[in-house]
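ok so I'm stuck.
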Amino acid sequence: MSFSTILIDWYLKNKRELPWRNTTNPYHIWLSEIILQQTRVNQGLPYFESFTSNFPSINDLANATEDEVLKLWQGLGYYSRARNLHATAKFISANLNGIFPKQYDEIIKLKGIGPYTAAAIASFAYKEQVAVVDGNVFRVISRYFGIFDDISTSKTRNVFQDLANELICKINPDLFNQAIMDFGATQCTPKNPDCLNCVFQENCFAFRNQKTTELPVKLGKTKVSNRYFNFIIYKDKSDFTIIEQRVEKGIWQNLFQFPLIETSESVDLKNIKSLINESFQNIIKLNQTEIIHKLSHQKLHINFWELEVDEISNENKISIEDLNTFAFPIVLSNFIKSHYEI
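replied:
not stuck anymore, here's the structure
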């Protein structure tokens, strides 16, 4: 039997039941693929259900405010995905009468949609014969065929795309794509793959040559920078505080935060008092130990400082009990919920 036949047969016996697999609605498929970028299925599922419940159609998503979208997205990270999702929904609603494009070449032109997502939508919704290539596919194909090229290069990605397009089932391209992703996610896993119960065991290069742990090859390494965030929580006698919106490009764009002082290293109480540079009654550190929050390219060292004042006159003041109505980065949201019990 061919590679695709064996793979699809395995999938039909072992597939995971997921709501976006029971539809050809391109909006739901697109939504699920954007959510599942950098997100595990069990984590992404409640977000998918929340989005489809709050925004049943592309037009509903387009008509939402960005704050509403970011609030629902809170906790998934990579917030540019949510902003691009919203922008594309507005484009489709305004320029395409709310109708999602039907060909890969048109889908990939949409903001926030790359080759993998475009292929997934085109094949799952419209059965177009274009293969998906993501981390799971790199892993399965590199191990099966013994490909040692560096997958972090565009040249190698093109090699894998061409090979996957040759392997794809011409009759059921959607099943093939679902199958190879599921196979990589549950069978041919990054660590401890189930090689002894694998349908490809006999012809798998990596298994036959004991090279499973060496494939796929990814030489490019992401440089991680350290940043030191000090959030100042102003609090007056009426339990009002101040928040601000991050408008600059970069992490957490358009999300809310407490006033921030970023330093070149961790600082103590004496340092933070001098940096605030204003009169105050009392300031305390709210977290006993520095909070470490890891992003793809950054490691954040976070401290929260509460500063007591008589009265907050700032026009952006809000009640502490209303903090949970705003879209904060998850590390701030978790702190607010645990510290203020709201």
